[in-house]
Amino acid sequence: MTNIINLLEARRAKLESLKAETSDRGVNEGGVQLALPFLTSELLYMVDVRNFVSQDDFQNFCAALVPSAVVDLRVAPRLDFIRPNRKQAFDLFNAFGFEYTDVLGRLKLSSYDVLDLDVEGIVSSISRIHSINSKSAPIVALIDNFVFAQKCLVRLSELFDASILDREAARRLMIEGSRQQM
Predict the structure, then answer these.
(1) Which of 8, 27, 70, 153 has its CA 20 to 30 A from that of 121?
(2) Whole-angstrom distance, CA of residue 170 vs CA of residue 164
(3) Contact 8, 163 (CB under 8 A)
């Protein structure tokens, strides 16, 4: 996956500079609030579950990113990379305060060979999860099929500032989260 450009730090910096710039401007001389330049702050990061080698990796990743929700875009969603059993995995989700949703399971999709209509259903589900979530934090999408993830990414990019995190970006977040938890 070396052909993926790592944009995580660039997007974070861009959002921070936009926040700083708009808070400095406040109100213009005419007393009318200035319009924000178009930049979505709704972030969605797709991450391959194979990047999580140990069970602490996912916890450290979430500690650094602090997601508002985790959506699973895998046909066979196993959570043993997070904790030894599902109950412990869901306990971890609750400890971090985010919802976990098996999107493909809810849509009864059992294959990555999906129609455009199915992709629309996936996008709609993730959009709905985002809209009912009160936290303004990124959404993490768990993937294990790169071609399927790219197909979804094309459509998700219309609603979110969405990207697939490469192995190095995921590793840096795990390291950052590990440091934060010390």
Answers:
(1) 8
(2) 10
(3) yes
Percent of the chain with pLDDT over 70: 77
Q: Give the long-range contacts of residues 133-136, CB within 8 A, separation 24 or more.
A: 133/68, 133/69, 133/99, 135/68, 135/97, 135/98, 136/41, 136/68
Specify whether the CB–CB gap between 161 and 46 falls below 8 A.
no
CA distance 128 to 78: 23
Lookup result for tokens 């969603």? 77
Q: Quick one: pLDDT at residue 9?
A: 63
Helix (H), strand (E) at residue 3: none
pLDDT of residue 157: 94
First-to-last alpha carbon distance for the chain, in angstroms, is: 31
Average pLDDT over residues 46-62: 95
Burial class of residue 7 (count of CB atoms within 10 Å of its CB; 0-12, 13-18, 19+): middle
Amino acid at 151: K
Q: What is the 3-state secondary structure (H, E, C) of 35-97?
A: CCCCCCCCEEEEEEHHHCCCHHHHHHHHHHHCCCEEEECCCCCCCCCCCCCHHHHHHHHHHHC
Per-residue pLDDT, averaged over 126-131, amounts to: 90
